[in-house]
Amino acid sequence: MPPNAQCAANVQRRRKEAEMNAQQCTILYERLSRDDGEDNVSNSIKNQQSLLQDYAERNGLTPYIHVFDDGYSGTGWNRPGWQKVIAEIKAGNVHTIVVKNLDRMGRDYLRVGLYMEMFREKGIRLIAVSDGIDTSRGDDDFTPFRAIFAEWFARDTSKKIKAVISAKGRSGKPLASIPPYGYIKDPNDKYHWIVDAGAAKVVKRIFEMTIEGNGPHEIARKLVADQVECPSYYMGSRGFGNYKNKYDKDNPYKWQGSMVISILKRLEYVGNTVNFRTQNEHFKTKKRIYLPQKDWLVIENTHEAIISQKDFDTVQKLRGTPRRIDKIGEANPLTGLLFCSDCGAKLYNSRDSKPKTGKYNGKPYNYKPADHYECSTHILGKKTYTAACSSHYIRSEAVREIILDTLRRTSGYVREHEAEFIEVIRERFAIKQGETAKSTKKQIAKNERRIAELEHIFRSLYEDKALGRIDMKRFEEISGGYEQEREELLAKTAELQTELDVFYTDSTRLEKFIELLRQYTHFDELTPKILNEFVDKVVVHEGEWSEGKPQGARRGMGTRSQAVEVYLKYIGSFDVPDLRTVDEIEAERVAFEKLERKREYNREYARRRVAAQKTASQIA
User: Fold this and answer.
1) How many domains does the chain divide into?
2) Residue 132: inside a domain, yes or no?
3) Residues 129 and 274 in one domain
C-alpha cells in the first residue's frame, strides 16, 4: 500500500476509534477483601478510587465510572460489582478497564487469564496501574506469573486463617458467630453464652412434648396454634441472630417440623460447645460442607444447660424410631420399644380405627378395635413366602398393663426396701463387671500382644526389603495382609476399651434410677412421658398354649401364656422379690384355679356347640 494511502487508513481508523470511544466509557474497578490483612489501608476503596481517577484524567480515559466490590474475596467471581462490569462489556458500553493491581480483578489465575482473553477478543483495553500492565502496548510476559502469585497469596492466606480458626476452636471457644436459639452472648464475654429465658422456655417445651410422644410436625402445629414466635422472628425482631435483616415480619408463627428437628438434635442445649461441624469445600468458594459427627469437636460444660443429659438422651432415642400417624390419627407410644426374643427384630404395630361388629349365639355385639404387635421379621416372611420368625403376637393393652404393673411393683419395693434394692442392684452390677471386665481385659491384652508382634514382623519385612532380600512386589503382598490385621485389631481393641469404660460407670446408674423414681409419687396411668423416661425396651417371647398347638393351626388349645421382660432405664430387667405372705399366695392360687376351670368349661361348651352345628348342617 502506498505511504499516502497508509496514512489515510490510519487516520480513518483513529477517527472510527474516537467515535466508538465517545459512545463507550472507561470502568475504574476497585475491590477490597476482608482477607487483605495489613494491606487494607493502601488497598482501601477510597484510596483505589482516588488513584484510578487521577490516572484516568491524566491519560484522557474519559468518560469513566467507578464500580467496586467492598468485602469480597478475589477467589470468587459472583461479586455484584464484577458482574456489573461483565454486563456492561456484553452490552458494548466499555472500551477500557482500569484496576490498581491485577489481583484486584481476581486471585484465580485461570479465570483471570480467561477474562483477559475475552477482553482481547472484544477489543477492550486492560490497564493495571501499579503493575505497569497496558494491553494496548502488547503482551507482558510477566503477567501470567503475577496472576499465579495472586492466587498463591489467596491460598496462603486461606491456610493461615484456617490455622487461626482451628486453634480458636480447639481452645474451647465457640466458632459460631451467633449462639443457637435459646442463648445470647454474654455482654461481658463474647465467647460465653448465657440463657435467654424467653427462648429457653420454648426449647424446654419442645423437648417435653417430644418425651410425651409428640412428633416434630405435631409439635410445630401446636406451637403455631399457641402463637409462639418462631426462632427467626424471635431473634430477628430483637436485633440479633442470622435473620435480623430478613425475617418474615408478617408471619411471626411460621413453625415447621424441620425447625423442631434442628432444635432437638443440638448438643449445645446440654451445655456443650460444638465446633467444626462444617468446613469450606475449597478456598476459591464459600460453599460449606457438613462433616460427619465423629469429626466434630465437642467441649463439655462450657455454658449453662437448658436440657438435662437424661432428657436429651431420651429424645435422641425417640428420634431414632419413626412413629407414624396411623388410622386413628396418632402414633402408638410403644412403637420402638418392643423387641422379639428370638430374632431381636422390632415388633410391628397394627390397629384398626373403628370397632367391628359381629354375632355370638345369634346376638349382635361389638369387637374391640384391633391393636397388637407382631414380629416384623415374621410379617416380612409372610409377604415374601419365606420361612421366618414366629408371630410373637401380643396385644398393646396387655403390654401396657405389664409395664404399668412392673413400675408399680418396682417403685413400691424401692420405697419400702431401698437399702435391700441398692444392695441387690450393686451386687448384680459387681458380678456383671467382674465377669465381663475380666474377659474383656484378657482380650484387650491378647490383642495388644498381637499388635506388638505385627509391628516386629513389619519392621523385619522392611529390613529385608531395604537389604534386597525380597522385592517390592513381595513386600507389598505380605505387608498388606499384616497391616489390615493390625488395623482391625486396633479398632476392636478401642471398641473393647469403650465397653470396659461403660461397665465401670454402671454403679452411677443406680443413683440415677432412684432419683428418677422420686419424681413420681404413684403410677396410676402409663403416660407416654412415663413410658419414655422409665422403659428402655420390652422383650416379648412367643406365647405357649397349655394344651399345645396343632401343626398348621392358627390358634392353639387351652390357655395361652407369654413371657415378657421389661428392661427399665439404668437398671435393666429387675425381678421384684415376692413379698407376699403364705395366705396371699394360697388365695391367688385358688383364684387362678377357679379361673382355669371357668375357661375350660367355656372351651368345652364351645366345642359342643360347634359339634352340634356341624351335625345339624349334615342332617340338613
Assistant:
1) 4
2) yes
3) no
The model's pTM: 0.55
pLDDT, tens only, 392-405: 889 988 999 999 99
Residues 482 and 574 both lie in one domain: yes
DSSP 173: -
* C-alpha triplet 575, 578, 581: angle, nearest 5°: 175
- Tens of pLDDT, residue by residue over 67-126, are 999 888 877 888 899 999 999 988 888 989 999 888 888 877 778 878 888 888 888 898
Nearest Cα to 157, choosing from 45, 48, 40, 297? 40
Tens of pLDDT, residue by residue over 468-521, are 777 777 777 777 777 788 888 888 888 777 766 655 555 567 777 888 888 887
What CATH number corresponds to the domain at position 10? 3.40.50.1390
DSSP 318-372: HHTS-----TTSS--TTTTTEEETTT-PBEEEEE-SS-EEEEETTEEEEEPPPEE
CA geometry: angle at 37 spanning 33 and 43, to 5°?
60
Amino acid at 295: D
529 & 601 share domain: no
Q: Which three cell numbers stand for residue 284?
A: 476459591
DSSP 240-255: -STTTTT--TT-TT--
Claim to verify: residue 571 and residue 603 sit in the same structural domain: no
Name the 3-class secondary structure at 456.
helix
Quick one: pLDDT at residue 255? 92
Domain hosting 313: range is 183-319
